[in-house]
Amino acid sequence: MHHCLLDFRGSSSLGVNSYIPILLNRLLKSEGVGLEMSGVYLSNDDDIENIPDYLLDVNGMAFEFMDEHVTVPFSLGAAFIANWCNKNIVENRDAIISKCNGLIKKYQPV
Fold this sequence. Notes:
With about 110 residues, this protein is an alpha+beta fold. It has helices spanning about 1-10, 20-30, 75-90, 95-105; strands at about 35, 40, 60-65, 70. It is built from four helices and four strands; from the N terminus they run ααββββαα.
């Protein structure tokens, strides 16, 4: 899971220094997102084609890195992302942590 998020932080393109903000924005909209080597996917994604086969019969989120994956409940995944960002994000930290808090709130157990 760490390497997956590390890839999102370290990947960049023209005009994008890190994909962490994009990842958080998409997860807050209940949409998974994938990069070349990594992805975070949701079993409740509105776009069924964005849900990997291994996640179809599971209720949670999956972290993918280099063709390996780990599936966890939504609340655990959100907590992991927030904890990881708290320890590893420096740039735009306040905005990222705010989005992480929103993610925890969105996926906390009812």
